[in-house]
Write a structure and sequence with these properties.
Elements lengths: L7 H9 L4 E5 L3 H9 L4 E4 L3 H4 L11 H14 L4 E5 L9 H13 L5 E3 L7 H10 L2 E7 L5 H4 L9 H17 L3 E5 L3 H10 L4 E4 L7 E4 L1 H5 L16 H18 L13 H11 L4
Parallel strand pairs: 1-2, 1-8, 2-3, 3-4, 4-5, 5-6, 6-7, 7-8
Helix pairs in contact: 2-4, 5-6
The protein binds 3-methyl-2-oxobutanoic acid (KIV).
3-methyl-2-oxobutanoic acid binds next to strand 6.
Length: about 280
């Protein structure tokens, strides 16, 4: 890909001309490199990393240090794809100053292009403050996985008048606060399509249906690498777990049977050097 790196302006231009924006999650350099080279427009370094990489039961255990480390690896792989850092639980819930400092760490230490957080109406001022610092912000409405405890599970949002109103008002408030895009997670397709029409900025669906300006999936779901929890909106394109299992079993068998390593996997030395070593240290049985 020779195309230049995406910015808030190129992402907005895609939305304006009706070109669907593509987005995937990534947490490490090699995966991000493939996503970048495949021409995916945006990467979210999601706090889902706590679950799909670190094996925790939910996203609440992601920390700033963990996220900055993963974001740096991803950002180094991307010369085209825009990289968005997900602000973990506890990094934006306290003061505006704390939120600004944590957002700044993602830009200065990890060199990401934007930050995203699960902003409720209480966090709109923080969105404004980060945008005023000059950092691009992605909003996130609908299901907030960091609220799993209060919600009692990872369930779809916006199916009742009250929760649908919440989705609409939060999206409008985020746009007013300066967010350049908004993720719609686990929201009825008709509601996301309606809000997408009302907004002037791009909407990105993860379980928000086809009416959004873009689509996002969690990469380990796409690759078939994570089966502890698969939401109904995810599509599994490959069976990497199956492939890994088969590959590791073949490696185990080849090592046990002496098939690996073969000659081509070994360094060679001259007969003279070996003879000199045996002369000095003696023969073996
Ligand atoms: O952490 C994540 O991957 C996310 C998406 C599910 C939106 O926040």
């Amino acid at each position: 890909m020779t195309q230049k790196k995406h910015t808030v302006r190129t992402i907005q231009a895609m939305r304006d001309k009706g070109e669907t924006i593509t987005m995937l999650t990534a947490y490490d350099y090699p995966t991000a490199k493939q996503i970048n080279d495949a021409g995916i427009d945006m990467i979210l370094v999601g706090d889902s990393c706590a679950m799909v990489v670190h094996g925790h039961p939910n996203t609440l255990t992601a920390t700033m240090d963990m996220m900055v480390l993963h974001c740096g690896s991803v950002a180094r792989a991307c010369d085209r794809t825009m990289v968005v850092a997900d602000m973990p639980f506890g990094s934006f819930q306290y003061s505006i100053e704390d939120t600004m400092k944590n957002a700044a760490r993602f830009v200065t230490e990890a060199k990401v292009d934007a930050v995203k957080f699960e902003a409720t109406p209480n966090h709109i001022e923080k969105t404004k403050a980060i945008v005023e610092m000059g950092i691009a912000v992605v909003g996130h409405v609908g299901l907030h996985p960091q609220a799993v405890g209060a919600l009692g599970g990872l369930t779809a949002q916006g199916k009742t008048v009250d929760t649908a109103r919440k989705v609409v008002t939060e999206a409008l408030a985020l746009q007013d606060a300066g967010a350049f895009a908004i993720i719609f997670e686990a929201v009825p397709a008709e509601l996301s399509a309606y809000v997408t029409q009302k907004l002037a900025i791009p909407t990105i669906s993860i379980g928000g249906g086809p009416g959004c300006s873009g689509q996002l999936l969690v990469t380990p779901d796409v690759l078939g690498m994570f089966d502890a929890f698969t939401p109904s909106f995810a599509k599994k394109y490959q069976d990497f777990n199956g492939l890994m299992k088969q590959t590791f079993a073949q490696y185990r068998d080849e090592v046990k049977q002496g098939v690996f390593p073969a000659d081509e996997h070994c360094y060679q030395m001259s007969a003279e050097v070996m003879a000199a070593i045996k002369a000095e240290f003696g023969q073996v049985a």
